[in-house]
Design a protein that fits this description.
globular
């Protein structure tokens, strides 16, 4: 078996991730209709959620029933076989699927993923360039919604698709909200 010593590994790289406390923006955002909350993020009037900063997702478009994210993965997302880990692409698809639904919800309503089915069609590598993910609502019911997502690379080739089922529910109000504004 051939092995590398740590001196053969090449230079160590790093990336700094910064984010804002999610509690206050979430509390304010959840008091808005979904489309207004998402458009405030697109406009830079609300910070993105921490997961977006961590995985380098940018919400770039929000219309009722349709959202667009971009992502330019770096080598920190690589798996052991030299490609971007499928979990990053799945998370990107889960994000656009959920936000597409969010764009249709009135204030006081929330959602969570029940299931997501992802089909990976092409490996993503650094040479793939920026990814674009589009999420659309297929059917938005009062309790269950169905959405889909498509991720393409810089050449326009589809790298993955997904279908998602989401549960729609009333958000709690008052002191027991899931995102209290009185965090220490």
């Amino acid at each position: 078996m051939t092995s590398l010593t740590d001196t053969d590994w090449g230079p160590q790289e790093s990336r700094t991730v910064s984010w804002h406390d999610p509690a206050k923006p979430a509390a304010l955002g959840l008091s808005l209709p979904g489309i207004d909350y998402l458009r405030a993020m697109v406009a830079g009037d609300m910070p993105p959620p921490p997961i977006a900063q961590l995985l380098q997702f940018d919400l770039v478009e929000a219309d009722p029933g349709r959202v667009v994210f971009t992502c330019t993965p770096d080598a920190s997302a690589y798996n052991p076989i030299g490609a971007v880990h499928g979990g990053l692409v799945c998370t990107l698809l889960d994000s656009v699927a959920g936000c597409a639904l969010h764009s249709t919800l009135p204030s006081g309503r929330g959602y969570t993923s029940i299931e997501i089915k992802v089909s990976y069609l092409k490996a993503v590598r650094l040479q793939s360039g920026p990814l674009t993910a589009v999420g659309t609502v297929v059917k938005a019911g009062s309790r269950v919604a169905f959405t889909e997502g498509v991720v393409t690379d810089a050449s326009g080739a589809t790298v993955a698709t997904a279908t998602s089922t989401l549960l729609v529910f009333d958000l709690p109000s008052g002191p027991g909200r899931p995102f209290p504004t009185d965090r220490k």
